């Protein structure tokens, strides 16, 4: 079985220049941020984050798409049922044939536990009755106050930065609809400035689900990857991009729809995803990055290392 994911994204990246502060070997002087000379954008983004600086695991109640969705669970914040939405962030990834800039990519995945697909070898293919849409909002420019509240968010509830009313309205607008509904999606009034409206760009990615002897194993489904923020190689720019990358927050909606001719049901999960676990040996961010807004209309700091905007829409079709 395979999951076919259609991802829609619009990415804007802005880069500024600053002086260099590197030793004769190309490493930053007096810095905890290490250059990754063996990495380049010729590799996949999954490979780029194989050795991340920070990660996050956000439990959810996931769905076994090899069985009918007859009794959808509730979207409770808590330990979940073994499923999770995960994030991995890497920094200072070199661009191929580019000695002036680096990338700080993030990848978000849907992780299934062992034995998650009990009907993987069933004679009835229930997966064809599912449509699973994944939406990620990435154009948001959070204020420092927003990011401070996100730091206290321990369960992905968004801690009031995105209100419960906004989350419920978004679920109502997108769950149970064709995944392409994002093209006519308008931000609910209840969301105020919390979320931006969708954009459009498409990429198709194929994934394998467990089958045969691997049916008892877990599974990972790629939801989206984001190469920015970018920066030049000065120490100031690298540190600002590093801090921004490790403190970014991505609202994610998973919308499940099931219909087999007799039964029809929907289920959705909304989480604010961030990398809240700094990997051993990596530097804890000193700030949120210089491009963050101190208020609703003002950017803090005198320089901006990178400003990244993207909305990614992922359609998961089960074949």
From TrEMBL:
Signal peptide: 1-21
Biased composition (Polar residues): 22-42
Stretches for region Disordered: 21-42, 283-302
Assigned keywords, A-Z: Signal
Organism superkingdom: Eukaryota
Chain intervals with Basic and acidic residues compositional bias: 283-293
UniProt entry tagged with the keyword Signal: yes
Protein name per its UniProtKB record: Uncharacterized protein
Organism: Colletotrichum orchidophilum
């Amino acid at each position: 079985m395979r999951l076919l994911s259609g991802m829609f994204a619009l990415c804007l990246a802005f880069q500024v220049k600053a002086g260099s502060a590197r030793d004769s070997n190309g490493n930053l002087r007096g810095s905890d941020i290490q250059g990754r000379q063996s990495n380049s954008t010729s590799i996949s983004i999954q490979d780029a984050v194989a050795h991340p600086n920070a990660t996050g695991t956000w439990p959810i109640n996931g769905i076994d798409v090899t069985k009918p969705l007859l009794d959808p669970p509730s979207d409770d914040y808590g330990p979940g049922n073994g499923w999770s939405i995960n994030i991995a962030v890497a920094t200072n990834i070199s661009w191929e044939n580019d000695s002036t800039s680096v990338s700080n990519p993030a990848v978000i995945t849907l992780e299934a536990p062992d034995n998650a697909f009990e009907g993987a070898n069933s004679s009835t293919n229930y997966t064809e009755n599912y449509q699973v849409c994944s939406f990620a909002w990435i154009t948001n420019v959070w204020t420092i106050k927003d990011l401070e509240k996100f730091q206290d968010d321990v369960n992905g509830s968004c801690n009031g930065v995105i209100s419960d009313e906004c989350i419920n309205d978004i679920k109502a607008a997108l769950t149970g609809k064709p995944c392409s509904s994002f093209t006519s999606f308008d931000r609910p009034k209840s969301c105020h400035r919390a979320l931006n409206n969708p954009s459009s760009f498409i990429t198709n990615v194929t994934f394998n689900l467990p089958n045969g002897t691997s049916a008892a194993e877990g599974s990972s489904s790629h939801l989206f990857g984001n190469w920015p923020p970018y920066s030049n190689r000065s120490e100031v720019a690298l540190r600002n991009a590093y801090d921004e990358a490790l403190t970014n927050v991505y609202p994610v909606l998973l919308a499940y729809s099931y219909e087999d001719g007799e039964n029809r049901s929907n289920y959705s999960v909304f989480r604010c995803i961030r990398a809240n676990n700094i990997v051993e040996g990596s530097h804890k961010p000193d700030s949120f990055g210089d491009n963050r807004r101190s208020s609703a209309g003002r950017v803090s700091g005198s320089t901006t290392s990178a400003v990244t905007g993207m909305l990614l829409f992922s359609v998961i079709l089960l074949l």
